[in-house]
Amino acid sequence: VIGEIEACRHQLRELSLKIHSSPELGFQEVKAAAWLTQYLEENGFSIERGICELPTAFRGSYGQGKPAIAILAEYDALPELGHACGHNLIAGCAVGAAVASKPAIDRFGGSILVIGTPAEELYGGKGIMAERGAFDKVDMAMMVHPGVHDTATTQALACVGLEVEFFGKAAHAATRPEAGINALEAMLQSFAAMNSLRQHIEDKARIHGIITDGGEAANIVPAHSAGNFLVRAEDDTYLDELKEKVINCFIGAA
Questions:
Q1: What is a biological process (GO) this protein takes part in (predicted)?
Q2: Angle at CA of residue 158, ends 50 and 74, nearest 5°
Q3: Are 47 and 143 in contact (CB under 8 A)?
Q4: Rounded to whole angstroms, what are the CA distances from 206 to 23, 138, 234?
Q5: Which of 8, 129, 217, 250 could in theory staple to 134 by disulfide, Cβ–Cβ 3.0 to 4.6 A?
Q6: DSSP letter (8 states) at residue 111
Q7: Does residue 122 sit in the same domain as residue 16?
């Protein structure tokens, strides 16, 4: 397998750099999906494009029968930052490992799959695909992710996203501020409450978010505010508990 990887090292590097130089956001990874499926197709894989009703998702397969081993590829980028999380590397490693595994499949049987999972940065493509049956016939799934440590296994955090909006009442902030209801203040109070909550959560739990709408102009009392938030924990039980506490921060601010 190592020899197979060495033989295609240059191609994999070029593929990864090409994806890096053309960052695409979640569900918009048209170029990356095309390049990855083309590479797999050129190396003897059968390709299914647009699986799970997601245009940039795909499945490449080589061999037949069990065990069916899937290597997952991510290839979306972050807004403004591009491939800061190295999804271009994940994609290159996925197709490289799959192609390098072909001799083992030929010798021992079974099948190797590359499942392209779009929109991992913001929308959680794997969860959508799991609900739609992408992994139903898979015996084992794996992937790699770049990081600051070399490790064979790692513990991930369960995660849930929240989209929050507050609605107030617009008014001129100089002439009639008393007539307004400030929706931005509710969002700021929510952040203050979550900052206090962080003192009392488990060590590996995380709460983070951004304001996506804070008003239209400084001299208008904001009638609307919005934000995106992520809550993370080591297990689903504590995640549900922490999510409820975070939601209560928003309810209290309202």
A1: folic acid catabolic process
A2: 30
A3: no
A4: 27, 31, 10
A5: 129
A6: E
A7: yes
